[in-house]
Amino acid sequence: MEHIDIVPGFSWFGKNIGIKDKTLDFGGILADVPCQAAAVFTKNTIPGAPVQVGREHIKDGLLQAVIVNSKNANVATGTGGLEDARRMCRLVAESCGIAPELVLPSSTGVIGRRLPMEVIVKGAASLQDDFGKTERHLLNFADAIMTTDTRRKIMSVKVGNATLVGVAKGAGMIEPNMATMLSYLMTDAAIPSAVLQPMLQRAVNKSFNRISVDTDTSTSDTVVLLANGLAGAVDLEAFEAALQEMTVYLAKEIARDGEGATKLIELKVSGAKTAEQALLTAKSVVNSPLVKTAIYGADPNWGRFVMAIGKVFAYQVDVAELVIYFGQGAERLKLDAAMDMNEVPLDDISELLKRSEVFLEIVLGSGPYSETVWGCDLTEGYVHENAHYTT
Amino acid sequence: MEHIDIVPGFSWFGKNIGIKDKTLDFGGILADVPCQAAAVFTKNTIPGAPVQVGREHIKDGLLQAVIVNSKNANVATGTGGLEDARRMCRLVAESCGIAPELVLPSSTGVIGRRLPMEVIVKGAASLQDDFGKTERHLLNFADAIMTTDTRRKIMSVKVGNATLVGVAKGAGMIEPNMATMLSYLMTDAAIPSAVLQPMLQRAVNKSFNRISVDTDTSTSDTVVLLANGLAGAVDLEAFEAALQEMTVYLAKEIARDGEGATKLIELKVSGAKTAEQALLTAKSVVNSPLVKTAIYGADPNWGRFVMAIGKVFAYQVDVAELVIYFGQGAERLKLDAAMDMNEVPLDDISELLKRSEVFLEIVLGSGPYSETVWGCDLTEGYVHENAHYTT
């Protein structure tokens, strides 16, 4: 994005405090007033300490600040780790004169190590001075939450008089250090938490829950939406549409930036008997290592798609009805079981697979349901990065 | 294996007929008499044509021959493909003077292309002369069924007066419920089909269904057991024990030879509340790309194990009870959440992870259930092989 609108009534910071190296590793969001808030967290049954504290603090639907560190996830760290996450909230609260329960903590990075609290306490000594309301402050925050990301993920959009800004990190549904997908959304629209929460859940279900890099589910995934109300009421349908557009954009940015990935895959499965069949099939295909390596190699491998569709054991598929489209619009090319593979324009399909965005549609039959998911190819780069990441 | 015992009353062949290149691509098994037989096939809902024909032919519990080609899987090939599979059976039947319903066909290789039947008909012209009873004939058969395998997989064992010989192939698309995993087991023990079938199912459940290379389930997985009865009755418990030992051996050989793999992983999950929890957790860990790449890199990454255990959403795990052992016997080294990661002998654990066989045990708690699975590491070689495999 060239230009990012800031949201009135919010401040940000992002800086280096030396948790591991010299890159930005500590960031925060502070609203001028308590915000109506909504949040969605990881389904991993061993959630990180910050997720556990975040769940407590969001209960009343109110938040005023977010504090994030990268390089260490504070996961599987026991009661000491829980205390560290609470202490991070208190540091912000004391510095900024708000209640600790209004702070949501996040940590992302290596799992199983205690946070270096002496470094964090020192880094948080002058927080009230670190926060600022400029675009530069916002961009620093977006940079400070990155781990193996190769680029910043941020978007802003106007909804009536209100502004919605979203920031995300994640090089996949999971990263080498299992670090996590995090996203922070801020608006000055006035929307109560009770409305925001189901709206955010719907948006997440159609965006962040539709991407996959490697099937590994982080212990720390967190999406938070803060609404400070300064711009007054907005059209809720327009806001939800903007929210969905933004979360899909950020989700695609994460899939595109998947570990070692060279291309983004957008896969629609249609003609399904149920929504579940559409989603299970889409996930099975976009997660299949053999499909992902075929797309990396620009190989229009009909057989691997058939295999990945057929391993959804709960639904029977008639291969005679199966159609796979490669590309989109006028360029779309078709493969089905009735075609003679020796007469299919495999070279043209291969050309479509060489692009940085690969569009696929699988038609299962004549059912009414469809689902769209996003993923990335599987490359030597993914293996290299993850085999040699140091604990 | 240095020496392989042959089974009396069986003949084999393996040869090149030029389906794709000059390597062995056509093989068969022929018994002197109709055999009591049992078979287990893929759960993929789009099974190959040979699997569909095989299911019909095994129904009466009798088989006398097996015919296999590699280089082409005859999957997703419509009614023409079904007819090709039946024709392969007729070619053997006519050549060898038996009923076509006594022949089980298998094909493995590329999916979605019709078999080159003119090549196969020509190759099958003198089948009665190709079959022979020597170890060399058996080894040629074991070689002819390989695709991306780097080595032959074969074992023989004595049970009383009887001999049991097993042959297998498989190196990718391996999550057998499935490049396909094929295994042919032959014995001269006299055991009725009604006893063999549940015995084979139990053995497969503890062996081939406990391995995974890449979570992709082939459309062609087949395990067949033929008993010609020449050696008379045997102790059934001893036979089942031998069968289990053999299927576990062959399953491990497949996992060890996983595409691009540099090491075999044996993972036991114990202390589970249910057998399902033990198996789901073991599969989740052994299939996790981040665990597999960590083991490739000999990285004792506690965090990745915790993540993979926690993504089994159906069961709650208390991380305080979790223990991971690396290695086996006296060398075993332990990691748990209570340990200070800075004092753990990570270098010693890393040394254990550098071996060609990696032993792991995860203790989930104090439950009574355990399961063992086998897998392999994920390497640049897997990606390279599958990205550049030509359709």
Assign an overall shape of chain A.
globular
Give the count of structural domains of chain A: 2
Number of strands of chain A: 13
Tally of helical runs of chain A = 12
CATH superfamily descriptor of the largest domain in chain A: L-amino peptidase D-ALA esterase/amidase
The CATH architecture name of the largest domain in chain A reads 4-Layer Sandwich
The interface involving the most residues is between:
A-B, 68 and 67 residues
Radius of gyration of chain A: 22 Å
CA(first)-CA(last) distance of chain A: 34 Å
Low-confidence stretches of chain A: 173-179
- In quaternary terms, these chains amount to homodimer
Class per helix and strand makeup of chain A: alpha+beta
**Which sheet architecture does the biggest sheet of chain A show?**
8 strands, mixed
How much strand content do the residues of chain A show? 25-35%
* Chain-averaged pLDDT of chain A: 88
Helix amount of chain A: 25-40%
Q: Spell the H/E element sequence of chain A.
A: EEHEHEHHHEEEHEHEHHHEEHEEH
Family (chains A, B): Belongs to the ArgJ family.
Function (chains A, B): Catalyzes two activities which are involved in the cyclic version of arginine biosynthesis: the synthesis of N-acetylglutamate from glutamate and acetyl-CoA as the acetyl donor, and of ornithine by transacetylation between N(2)-acetylornithine and glutamate.
Protein name (chains A, B): Arginine biosynthesis bifunctional protein ArgJ
GO molecular function, one term (chains A, B): L-glutamate N-acetyltransferase activity, acting on acetyl-L-ornithine as donor
